[in-house]
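Please check this.
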Amino acid sequence: MARPPSATPPSGAHLRRRPLLAPRHPLHAPDEPRTGLDDRKGGGMNPSFDLLRSPWIPCLRTDGTLVELGLRDALVQAHELREIHGESPLVTAALHRLLLAVLHRVFGPDSLGEWGRLWEAGCWDTARLDDYLDRWRDRFDLFHPERPFYQAPDERVKPKPLNRLIHEVASGNNPTLFDHHTEVEGIALSPAQAARVLVTVQAFGLCGTKGPTMQFTDAPWARGVIFLVQGRTLFETLALNLIRPPRDMIGDDPSKDRPAWEMEDPFTPDRAKPYGYLDYLTWQNRRILLLPEGTSGDIIVRKATMAPALRLAPGVLDPMKHYFQDKKRGPLPLLFTAERALWRDSAALFQLRSEGYRPPLAFYWLATLIEEGYLDPSQTRRYLAMGMSSVPGQAKVHFYRSERMPLPLRYLREPALVEGLSEALEMAEGASRQLWGAVRTLATLLLSPEADAQEGRQPDRTELDRLMNQWAVDRFYWSRLELPFRTLVESLPKEKEGALEVWRQVLRQTAWRAFGRVADGLSHDPRALKATVRARGKLAAGLLKVLPES
């Protein structure tokens, strides 16, 4: 298939700023954040925002205090911080992606031993960080006149309100629930907010078409759930996700692999597969240019230009996603859906030895760290799942979500525990089917009391579905199981059979509660009583079948 001429703008394209050239040496003292309207160049008003030292990354301290830090301090103080805390799961995920790119570039690690030394140090080496960040400091200026961070101009497009860059804000084809901004009205962001938006859209931008020659494509994290292992501090979280990705998964030319800010031109040559993991983590899917305005000495951003850039090949598998193998379509990422809670697929995340799944690579990495003695298998960590639900092939977002689940490390080393977890989930699915069948019988006999007779009239299918949707018994059932399931995940490694028996009891009780919630709301006429008795008997027999008494 021919690629549309959207990835590369016309030669010499520019808008307000000069093309992609910048010195590699720092022009400013390393301890002075550059923020505000600078008059360094002949008295002109030149906006600047130093991402390394100006506060813009929202973090929680270990005491729960929310603070914004520059990129450098977020890393230097990572062992004193609990976590990154963005205004949405997309922002939180994108900020992790950026920090991991910096850490991989500075520290590697190229071997398990190198990783171990980083882990045992308990914090990031400030001298090594400063040496690297000072060398590339000008490339981390959000409004640099020549190489603004993560940005590039494109003369084919006109400035538009920032709404178009933010999934959480209504824009064009994406009217977001409860948001009342309009594309005409627009929004105004501080440099810190604009920086977070910029990093997020490069990771989560959705495909869509604008005009006959410009086609936007999905950014690397646009579809699928992003998984991160969580530690007790931000340092531990970043270190545990500082994996060694297989070279055959990402990277056609490792010798050219570097983050976008080091490249003289991140868009040339036009390519569909990254050079390596650093190129992938900083993949420039859009040519974005923020347009700052000065107001009383402060900077705000109301508008930006945005055009398509690098298109990622479909065969590139993301190390932080979970894939399952489809016979016809190949590997497909696990998605957030409104109908199915993510925990119902959690056993698949631990299938490290199955050909049908490819779990997040951090889970394989944890298994290696356990085997080599860096982590105690009796520990329980957590994993964080982040992402959004969107319309395939469109720039429409249904919702975005963040979920945290316990991660007892023994699941990564003991297949028998994973089998036990799979068994527990199969029990829950089986009880759900029996519940649905019983309630379907109840609805059928309410609408047509003789439907169970040999020649009895069957109810209208539309009316039957309407009644089932009104009762929403499935939604009630599954929503009541999430907290007990978290308990099961943690108790199963300690006492497998006892934990499974408790789980069976929870499933029975929840199924009967869901049924009773419907039956108790019915009238007491003969029709309703008959339907309830039949349905109750069906549920009792069904639960006995899938949840036999021990």
